[in-house]
Amino acid sequence: MAAEIHSRPQTARPVLLNKIEGHSDAVNAAVLIPKEDGVITVSEDRTIRVWLKRDSGQYWPSIYHTVSSPCSCMSYHHDSRRIFIGQDNGAVVVSEFLISEDFNKMNHVKTYPAHQNRVSDMIFSLESEWVVSTGHDKSVSWMCTQSGSMLGRHYFTAWASCLQYDHETQHAFVGDYSGQITLLKLEKQTYSTITTLKGHEGSVGALWWDPIQRLLFSGASDHSVIMWDIGGRKGRTLLLQGHHLKQELTLLPFCSFCLIFESLSERVQALRYLQLTRQLVTCSADGGIAVWNMDTQREEAPQWLDSDSCQKCEQPFFWNIKQMWDTKTLGLRQHHCRKCGKAVCGKCSSKRSTFPVMGFEFPVRICDACFETIKEEDRTPLATFHEGKHNIAHMDMDPSRGLMVTCGSDRIVKIWDMTQVVGCSLATGFSPR
Q1: Boundaries of each FYVE-type domain copy (predicted)?
Q2: Strands (E), 294-428
Q3: Do residues 248 and 227 make contact, with C-beta atoms less than 8 angstroms apart?
Q4: pLDDT for residue 30
C-alpha cells in the first residue's frame, strides 16, 4: 500500500461528485452514512436533514426535522442508528431512530441539559452508553444514555471547543480556546486529570484520535496541525509545512513524536488520520485540503539556537550593542536555518529550498552551507495540496468508499471522491462512531 501511495501522480486531486444546497444558514456538521448513498447534516437554521441520492444523481432531503435552536454539532452511530445533536442553547437533543429502507423516519428519544451554553462537540460511546460533550460554558460533561442522568462534569479556564474519546480506556481529549489540550480519565461520578498538552498558539478547532497507534492530531486557529504521540515518549519533534505555510519551531515537552503544520492562510478546522494508508487529511477555513504521507522516514527538526551573533560569519545581531561598538559595525537581523537550526544573518542564509523529509513542502530559509547538502531527490514532495473552493468548517470521511464530505459557513455541502489522492480499501477497519 505504501508503494501505491508513493507512486500516485502529483496531478491527482479530489473529484467533486455532488454539491448539496438547501440550508438557509451555516452547515456545522455533515457525516456520510456508511455503505449508503446518504449524508446527514445539521445547521444553524435549526434543521437536521438526511439527504439521499436519487436515480437522477441529485440529493434530496428524505428527513427534514426542525429543533428549537441552532444545531451546533452532531454524533451519529450507524450500527445503532442513533443521532445526538448539540444545540446553541446548551441542550443535547438525543434523537434515536430506526432508518427504514427509504430513510424517512426519525423518532425523538430524550433531551439532556448538558451545558449552559453552546455545545461545541460531542461523541457517543455505545460501549459505555455515554454521551461525552464539550461546550462554551467551559466544561466537558458525560451523561448516561440509559438513565438520562449526568455522571460528571469538568470545568476549564477557556471555552471547550473540540473532543476525542478513547472508547476502550475512557480517556477524553479536550481542546480549548486557549490552545491547550487536556487529557482526562473519565469514571462514573468522578474523573482524573492526566496531563495537559501545550503547543498551539491559538484555539484548538479539531481533534482526531487513532487508538491503534495511540496518536492524537490537533488543528488550531494558529494555522497549525500537531501530531502527538501519546504512547511513545521518544522525545522527537518533527515539523511539516502545509496550506501555504511558514515555519516556526515549537518545542513540545510531552509528546514523543510531533509533526507541526503551520498555515499562513486560514485556521485548520477539520482533520482525519487514515490508519491503514498512514495518511493525514487536513482542511482549513479557506477551503485548503492537504493530504500528508505519514508512512515515511523523516528527519527530526532541530531546535532553534540562541546567539548574539551569526553562527556562520560571526557578525553581531542588532541587539548585541557591545560587539557592534567594539567592531564599529551595524547589527544584523537574526534568522534561523530550518535544517540545522543555527542563528544566521541574511547574507549567510540567502538560499531557499523545500526539504520534505523534515516536513518543509514549500521553500524555507536554509543557510548556504546546508543548501549545498540538499540533493534534488531530497526535494521530492511528501504531501499534496488541493483547493476545496468553499469554506470548510467540518469534514467526514468514509475510507471504505474513498468518499469525503465537507461543509461550512457558505451553506454548501460538497461530496468528494478522494480515491485519487488517498488509499482506499474495504479492509480499513473504519468505524462510523
Answers
A1: 304-375
A2: 335-336, 343-344, 351-355, 360-366, 383-387, 394-398, 403-407, 412-417
A3: no
A4: 98
Buried b (16+ CB within 10 A) or exposed e, 307-334: bebbbbeebbbeebeeebeeeeeebbeb
Give the burial string for 277-290 (b: 16+ CB within 10 Å, else e): bbbbbbbbbbbbbb
Q: Does any domain span residue 314?
A: no
Residues 202 and 159 in one domain: yes
Phi/psi at 327 (5° precision): -100, -5
- Which residue type is seen at 319? W
Query: What grid cell was written down for 339?
Result: 535544517
Say if CB 254 and CB 195 are below 8 A apart. Answer: yes
Output the DSSP codes for 141-176.
EEEETTT--EEEEEE-SS-EEEEEEETTTTEEEEEE
CA distances from 291 to 260, 263, 305 (A): 14, 14, 31
Question: Does residue 197 share a domain with residue 177?
Answer: yes
CATH of the domain at 223: 2.130.10.10
Which of 362, 379, 396 is the last residue in one of the domains?
A: 379
Distance CA(60)–CA(51), nearest Å, equals 5
Q: How far is CA 408 from CA 22, 170, 411, 414, in A?
A: 13, 30, 6, 10
User: If the chain, 433 residues long, is cut into consecutive pieces of 10 residues, what is the mean pLDDT of each piece?
Assistant: 41 90 96 90 96 89 92 92 89 69 81 91 94 95 91 95 95 96 92 89 93 89 82 49 39 44 68 92 92 80 85 88 84 89 91 85 89 91 89 94 95 95 53 37
* Residue span of the structural domain in which 326 resides: 321-379
Q: Residue 427: inside a domain, yes or no?
A: no
Classify residue 193: in a domain, yes or no.
yes
Q: How far apart are CA 347 and CA 310, in angstroms?
A: 10
Q: Do residue 417 and residue 365 come from a single domain? A: no
Cell of 249: 519551531
d(CA 70, CA 44) in angstroms, rounded, equals: 4
Q: Are residues 145 and 162 in the same domain?
A: yes
Q: What CATH number has the domain bearing residue 371?
A: 3.30.40.10
- What pLDDT score was predicted for residue 252? 38
Give pLDDT, residue 254. 42
162 and 30 in one domain?
yes
Is 296 in the same domain as 329? no
402 grid coordinates: 474513498
Q: Examine residue 125 and state whether it is found in any structural domain, yes or no.
A: yes
Domain total in the chain: 2
E strand or H helix that includes residue 197: strand 190-198
Residues 21 and 168 in one domain: yes
Pairing outcome for strands 139-144 and 47-53: unpaired
